[in-house]
Amino acid sequence: MRFTPVSFEGTKMTYLYNDPTEFADEFLDGFVAANASLVRRVPGGVARRTSTPAGEVAIVIGGGSGHYPGFAGLVGPGMAHGAAAGGVFASPSAQRVYSVARAVAGEAGVLLSYGNYAGDVLNFDQAQRRLIAEGIPCRTVVVTDDIFSASPDERGKRRGIAGDLVVFKAAGHAAASGASLDEVWAAANHANERTRSFGVAFTGCTLPGASEPLFTVPTGRMAIGMGIHGEPGIDEVDIPTADRLAALLVDKLLDELPDGVGAASGSRVGVVLNGLGGVKYEELFVTYRSLSERLAAAGVEIVEPEVGELVTSFQMAGVSLTLVWLDDSLAEAWQAPAWSPAYRKGAMVAVTGDSGELAPDVPEEPIPDASDDSRVAASLVVRALDAMASVIDANVDNLGHLDAIAGDGDHGIGMQRGVIAGAAAAATAADSGAGAGTVLLRAGDAWADRAGGTSGALWGLILRALGEAIGDSDSPTASTVAHGLIAGRDEVMRYGKAQLGDKTLLDALTPFAESLEAGVAAGQHLATAWPRAAVTAKDAAAATAQLLPRIGRARPHQEKSIGTPDPGAVSLAMIAQAVADVITEETKERV
C-alpha cells in the first residue's frame, strides 16, 4: 500500500473561518463551548474547569494554535492544568503564558513545558521570570525529541514535536501524585531525556486565509524530518510503501538509544504513531501493523501504544513516530489515567471545585501625566506606527515566502498581526492623552501579545526600550531616540540570545541603531540621521543572504537559506524606511 499524495498546484485550500487574524481566539472559544464540563476560558488560553487542588503543582503547557489536540486538548486531570495559546503557528506571548499560569497556580508552584522553538523559549522564559518575581515557584522543561533537527551532541537544540505528549503526561502524573515542584520537574525532564521522535511529510499545510501552502513537496515525494510548523524536511525521497515507511521510522529511532538504555532488545517502549492532519486513521493502522512487527523483531516490548492525531499541523499529510524508552517510573506515568477533551486513558475520579468562570483581564494601567510637547510627539509616533503597518501589510506575502524557504513561513502573518495591534494600541493611548513614551510602551505590549512568536516578543522589547528612553516629560530628542534603539538592540541580544552573524533581525537592527547613534553624535538632526541609518539597515538586511542561520527555526535548514535574506532583518529594514518617510514628511510640514 502507498500513501496518496495531494498536489497543491493550481489549487487553493478552503477553510471555515471568519477573520483569519481572529482564527485562534475563535477556535478557543468554540473549543471551550464544546467542552465546558472540562475546561474554562482564561486570559491567554484555557484551564481546567475546576481549581488546582491544594498542594498540587500546576502544569502549564502551550504553543501556537494549529496543532490540536496539542495544546488545549491536553488540559485535564492527569495531564495539564492550563494551556497558553498563541496565534496560528506562533508562540503565545509572555503575557498569555503568565495569565494562564496565574489562573491555575497554587502555593506548590508551576511547571512550564513546551516544544523547543525560539519564540516559545523567549516568551515562556519571560513569563517564568515574572512569576518568580511575584513569589510563585516556577520551573521549566523544554521538549527536545525531534532527532532530525540537531545531532545527538546538540540535543538541547532539537525541536519538540509529538514527544510533547509523553513529557506532559509524565508531568501531569507526577503532579497528581502529590510530587513537589522539583520532583515534577525531574519526572518531566526524565521523560524528555528518554523520548525520541522522527517525522515525514507528503504535503505542506496552508494557514487560514492563505492561498498557498507554507511549503510544498513534489507529487510522489516525501520530505524527511519536517517540523510541525511547516518547516521543510531535511531530505526528500520517493514515497515508500507503508511497510517501508514503518521500517524507516523504526530503524532511525533504534539507531539512537537514550542514555541508560543499553540495548533495544529486552526494553519496553511507549509508542506514539502520530498523524499530522491529512493522513487517515486507516493508513496509520496499516503502518502501525508493520511498525509493531518490526519493533517486536528487535526484541522491544510495546506498552499501550497510541495511534492517531495527537500533535497536528492543520491538514499537513504526514506521520511521525515517537518512542519513549520506559523504566518503572516512566511506565507508571505512561499507563496512568488521564482525562482531557482529546486524550483519555483509564478511569478518573471526578474532581470537584469552583466552577472557574472566565477570569477578568488585568485592568489596564491609567495613562500617566505627560507634557504637551510629549503629546505632540505622540501623534508622530502614531503616524510612524501606521506607516509601519502599511508597509508590512503590503509585503506580508513576500515576507511569508522568504520565511518559508528555510523556516515555517509565518513571519509575514505574525508581523502583520503585531504591527496592526501595536498601531491600534498607540492610537488609543494617544487619543487618551498619553505622551510619546507611553504610546510606545502600549504599542509594544500590544504587538508582543497579539503577534506572539519570536518577532512579536522582540518587537515588543524594541518598542518598550524606545518608550522608556523617550518618556513622557519632554519632546524626544535625536539623542534619546538613538539611545532607545541601542537599548532595544541590547534587550534583543539579552533575551533573544542571538549574536551578530546568526542571520536574524539583529543583523539589521545593530547596524541601523549604531548608524543612527553615530550620526546623532556627529551632530545630525534626526531627519538626516534616521534616513541614512535606514539605508544602512536595508544594505545589512540584503547582506544576510550570505549568512548561515545559527539560531531559530531556520537553523536545521542552513544550506537552503543561502542566497535568501533573513525575513526578520528584511522586515526591520522595511519598517526603518517607512518611519524615515514619516520623519522626512513631518520635517517638511514644519518648514
Description:
The chain is an alpha/beta fold. It has 2 domains: 20-345, Dihydroxyacetone kinase, domain 1 (Rossmann fold, 3-Layer(aba) Sandwich), CATH 3.40.50; 372-590, DhaL domain (Serine Threonine Protein Phosphatase 5, Tetratricopeptide repeat). The chain has 17 helices and 14 strands. It has helices at 23-34, 94-104, 118-133, 164-176, 181-193, 242-254, 281-297, 328-335, 372-406, 411-431, 436-451, 453-470, 478-496, 506-521, 526-543, 558-561, 567-590, and strands at residues 39-42, 45-48, 58-65, 82-88, 110-115, 138-143, 195-201, 221-224, 235-238, 268-275, 301-308, 318-326, 338-339, 344-345. Strands 1-2-4-3-5-6 form a 6-stranded mixed β-sheet, sandwiched between helices. Helix 12 packs antiparallel against helix 13 and helix 13 packs antiparallel against helix 14 (506-521). The radius of gyration is 24 Å and the shape is globular.
Key terms:
single chain; 591 residues; alpha/beta; Rossmann fold; Serine Threonine Protein Phosphatase 5, Tetratricopeptide repeat; 2 domains; 6-stranded mixed beta sheet; 14 strands; 46% helix; 13% strand
